[in-house]
Design a protein that fits this description.
single chain; six-stranded mixed beta sheet; binds iron/sulfur cluster
Length: 697
């Protein structure tokens, strides 16, 4: 490597021209593989997140939280393997994985990027990314994501422990200017947290005033399993969050920038002027292609088909959200990449995403959220023009289609049901793979009457069997008059349907599934409900696993430990309406049903409520209880007493301790009891909204 980390161009193993050809070939291969439902892929990943080192110069409260791990750098042998086995095929590298790429391993990053002509997607906290480093990589820089959660120095430094706000803000301003000059996409990113929510509109304005044309506000993922209490989407009312969002959108409009709001869905508000610098050509092409794939393969996450993450020790996962190694595909220090890429776990993950039979972690993830029904897609205009030389505005969207619902998925063809449609002679059903203009299928359907004057149209099996299985066909229905010469009505939205073909789970896969009683360790925002609408009723979250199941315990960081202590709740102040309490009981029963064996013996902090002891055929006792196993009539007087009572219950056969959400205060009030539980018994469910269950066996 040359001075300043630059590499002699003559040593490049892949030239930029070769890189373009490789990327195009890979994409064409992948398209065919996805369409035919292949599990083993000849195509290779498009992007890799590589943790060249695990070192970060900060310790953010939603990440390491003051508790950074011992520093590690990737070994030269592993770097060589990544270069030789992944480098030739990769289009983009993101050198970030709960670490800061511009310290410790910056030279390795620069070397890899230049040697293989890979584009660099840089996510950085900006403390060390300055003009000199920018110059080293500007020719391969695809984008810079500036991860700065607040423009208020005090708030910023409170979130980003160890940060120097003045240095970060100075670098941010320099890099924004350089990105403008070299037309490189520059994104300001802030995680939406309780700490920074009230000032978010001002943060958006601050980015814009600095020359950042794109600001992205993203929801918090509790990847360290101790940041849930910072999740603003859980903490504030939906009206308040909406108000903040609208102020951010108004700011973006005033400043003529683009705003991404990634809290529940991908909402994009683009107010940039026509000549504003957009993403690099290759990135824009790939983003558009990914959007098309989202329609063509609903529910198939892009990280599961052509991305991956390599950690500092060589562990390979599909994505950076797999902080607990739930989806680990293999280890590049021990295996060749081909063995990992087409191993049983990788194939099973592809199968899972084709069929929506997801492993527990993906099931909680927003990347498998399905695209909503659309007002229009390109095939709609093509059909109108080719069939009737007509345009969308001339055909009333008035057909009242009752079913099938959007995202109908079944092995058998659907029956279309609609309300009576006066003045229509016949119907034309049109559908297209991914809603695009190629491969459109059209068929006239005959309507049968219903007793309630509605209509039914059968989609013929011959058409259904011609469709590719496990992919998305977007459809619309036209009502036609005058023997087929004039469309007079159409269904108001374009919906999607999938011809389902089950695929058996793959032997030897390490993936764990909800129906095996495995809960995801973290919630990744799938179907996220933003804010609460009723006081006292928090947004729902899926039940999550605790620290059991062989997973390493999440050690509370120093800051969290302090917070937890301060957050002790006086039970006398906890109020819950009778309706919410009944709802809670139902939710706890559902958790027990899916998490505990049918013969389990459970002790429950029930406060004497018999309803909290009914769990199908399982035995359940009050905790604490008297000799006759009736409720003792009081809460444990202190921790020592609770520990003694618990151990006696265990001797008498108790296998699980269940703390309903109404008794979560026990874990902060009885500190020694909580420590006793946490050091001896894994929490197999830890869900503050429903219940926590400790495995006492
Ligand atoms: S956890 Fe989410 S991002 Fe990762 S592979 Fe699963 S669905 Fe994709």
């Amino acid at each position: 490597m040359g001075r300043n980390g630059s590499i002699d161009a003559s040593r490049a193993r892949v030239t930029p021209e070769q890189r373009d050809r490789i990327s195009k070939r890979n994409r064409a291969l992948l398209e065919r593989e996805l369409l035919s439902g292949r599990l083993d892929f000849e195509s290779r990943p498009y992007e890799a997140h590589v943790q060249f080192s695990n070192v970060c110069n900060m310790s953010c409260i939603m990440c390491w939280d003051g508790d950074n791990p011992p520093a590690k750098k990737m070994s030269p042998e592993l770097l060589e393997r990544i270069g030789s086995q992944l480098g030739p095929d990769l289009a983009v590298i993101t050198p970030h994985e709960a670490s800061e790429p511009t310290v410790v391993s910056w030279e390795e990053t620069v070397d890899m990027v230049k040697r293989y002509s890979i584009d660099l997607a840089l996510t950085t906290n900006m403390q060390e990314f300055d003009e000199q480093k920018f110059d080293q990589v500007k020719s391969r820089l695809e984008m810079v994501v500036m991860s700065i959660d607040s423009h208020v120095p005090e708030v910023f430094e409170k979130i980003r422990l160890g940060a120097k706000a003045d240095k970060v803000f100075r670098n941010a301003s320099t890099i924004a200017r350089l990105c403008q000059k070299y037309r490189i996409e520059c994104i300001g990113q802030a995680v939406f947290m309780t700490e920074n929510t009230p000032m978010m509109p001002e943060t958006v304005a601050w980015f814009a005033d600095m020359g950042v044309p794109f600001v992205s506000i993203v929801g918090l993922n509790d990847t360290n399993r101790r940041s849930w209490h910072l999740d603003a989407a859980l903490h504030y009312s939906s009206e308040y969050i909406d108000w903040i969002k609208n102020r951010c959108v108004a700011t973006a409009k005033e400043k003529k920038i683009r705003l991404a709001w990634f809290l529940s869905d991908y909402e994009m508000f683009d107010f940039r002027e026509a000549d504003a610098p957009g993403p690099k050509h290759s990135k824009a092409g790939n983003d558009a292609w990914d959007s098309q794939m989202r329609l063509r393969h609903p529910g198939y996450c892009r990280f599961a088909y052509n991305r991956l993450r390599v950690e500092v020790a060589g562990n390979v996962s599909p994505c950076g959200l797999d902080s607990q190694h739930e989806l680990e595909l293999g280890n590049l220090s021990e295996q060749d990449f081909d063995e990992i890429w087409n191993g049983p776990t990788a194939q099973d993950l592809r199968r899972a995403h084709y069929t929506w039979d997801y492993p527990s972690l993906c099931k909680t993830c927003r990347y498998v959220d399905l695209a909503p029904a659309m007002d229009a897609l390109p095939f709609l205009d093509t059909v109108l023009w080719q069939q009737w030389r007509s345009r969308r505005g001339f055909v009333a969207p008035t057909l009242e289609v009752e079913s099938p619902q959007h995202m109908y998925r079944a092995t058998d063809p659907p029956t279309i049901r609609l309300a009576a449609a006066a003045g229509i002679d016949s119907f034309l059903f049109a559908l297209s793979l991914g809603g695009q203009t190629q491969g459109i299928e059209m068929i006239e359907l005959e309507a049968g009457g219903r007793s309630d004057a509605g209509l039914e149209l059968e989609v013929p099996n011959s058409l259904w069997q011609r469709l590719h299985s496990n992919v998305g066909y977007w459809w619309t229905l036209f009502g036609v008059r005058n023997g087929g010469t004039a469309p007079v009505a159409r269904s108001p939205e374009v919906r999607c349907m999938v011809r389902h073909a089950p695929i058996a789970r793959i032997d030897g896969s390490r993936l764990k599934y909800p129906d095996e009683g495995h809960f995801a360790p973290i919630y990744l925002g799938g179907d996220r409900q933003v804010g609460w609408t009723e006081r006292g009723k928090l947004p729902t979250r899926p039940p999550l696993a605790g620290i059991g199941g062989g997973q390493p315990a999440a050690t509370p960081g120093p800051r969290f430990a302090k917070l937890r202590k301060a957050a002790a709740v006086d039970p006398a102040t906890v109020k819950m309406t009778p309706e919410h309490y009944q709802e809670l009981i139902g939710q706890i029963r559902a958790v027990v049903e899916s998490a505990l064996p049918a013969q389990a013996s459970i002790v429950v902090a029930s406060k004497g409520d018999l309803e909290l002891l009914w769990f199908g055929g399982r035995s359940a006792w009050h905790f604490p209880c008297d000799d006759a196993r009736d409720w003792a009539g009081f809460h444990p007087p202190n921790s020592d007493w609770a520990i003694g009572h618990l151990e006696r219950m265990r001797d008498e056969g108790a296998e699980y301790l269940l703390l309903p959400a109404t008794a979560h205060w026990w874990l902060s009030h009885y500190e020694q009891f909580a420590a006793h539980l946490r050091t001896r018994y894994p929490a197999i469910v830890e869900d503050i909204e429903r219940c926590t269950i400790f495995d006492l066996r």
